[in-house]
Give the backbone structure.
Amino acid sequence: MAAGKNRKKSQRKERDGDPQSKEEEQKMTTQTININMGDVEEEFCVTCEGKIFIEVVRCKKLSAIQSPTGKDEMVTFPAGLICANCKPVVGDPPSGENEV
C-alpha cells in the first residue's frame, strides 16, 4: 500500500512540476553580465550633437467604462526621447503605442 502512495506522489510531482527543481532551474538560467560603460558607444543628437536626452511620455484618458477600476483614469506610456538642448524627438516611437 505504501508503494501505491509513493507512486501517486511521484505522478503528482511529474504532473505539477517539482517546485524545488523549478527554483534551481531559474537560478541556473539567471546570469549577471558586467558591462563596462566606457566600452559602449554613446548616442548623440543628429541635429546638435547633444548628449543629454529627456524621456517623454504620452497621456491618454481612459473612460470609466474602459477602466478596470470603474473610474476615469490617466494612462501614460513611453513616447520616446527628446534632446535636452534642441528638443526634437529622437528615434522612432516605441511600437504598440495604441495598446494599454
